[in-house]
């Protein structure tokens, strides 16, 4: 129970009322961080502490973006559009190449290695879909994949 002396101070006419007014609840104010890379970039392009690119992770992310484009092509984040533009520029050009280069910051050899991994996985998917049980398919290329 509150002390009656304190309750007297909580009345509006009392000069010490200001110290006893009810708490004001302030809304949360988030700061916009426009000049920093978003959380999506940190998740999509992962590097080891020594600076080496995690090739399998990035290749899986590119495959996820390709799958997402089949269902919702207009719902890509900027980093997703940059990944497919940089890794597979002839098949998917979702943004300007120079802008994609800035967002991804991958070297030419890294892009080629990721593209080879992605094309190999897409060939295996084609072979599995054809009923041959997976593995690479001689003569099948990335151009056979719709997208």
Please tag this protein with its features.
mainly alpha, 0% strand, elongated
Describe this structure in words.
This protein is 47% helix and 0% strand. It is mainly α and 147 residues long. The chain has a domain at 39-105. α3 packs across α4 (78-87) and α3 (55-71) packs across α6 (108-129). The longest helix is centred in the last third of the chain and has 22 residues, at 108-129. The N and C termini lie far apart (70 Å). 18% of the residues are buried. The mean pLDDT is 76.
Mean pLDDT: 76
**What is the straight-line distance between the termini?**
70 Å
Ranges where pLDDT stays below 50 over 5 or more residues in a row are none
Question: Total helix count?
Answer: 6
Radius of gyration: 28 Å
């Amino acid at each position: 129970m509150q002390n009656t002396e304190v309750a007297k101070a909580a009345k509006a006419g009392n000069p010490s009322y200001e110290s006893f007014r009810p708490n004001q609840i302030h809304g949360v104010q988030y700061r916009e961080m426009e000049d920093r890379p978003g959380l999506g970039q940190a998740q999509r392009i992962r590097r080891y502490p020594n600076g080496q690119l995690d090739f399998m992770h990035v290749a899986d992310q590119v495959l996820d973006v390709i799958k997402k484009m089949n269902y919702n092509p207009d719902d890509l984040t900027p980093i997703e559009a940059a990944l497919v533009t940089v890794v597979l520029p002839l098949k998917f050009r979702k943004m300007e190449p120079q802008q994609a280069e800035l967002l991804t910051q991958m070297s030419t050899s890294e892009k080629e290695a990721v593209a080879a991994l992605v094309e190999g996985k897409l060939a295996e998917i084609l072979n599995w879909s054809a009923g041959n049980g997976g593995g690479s398919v001689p003569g099948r290329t990335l151009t056979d994949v719709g997208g």
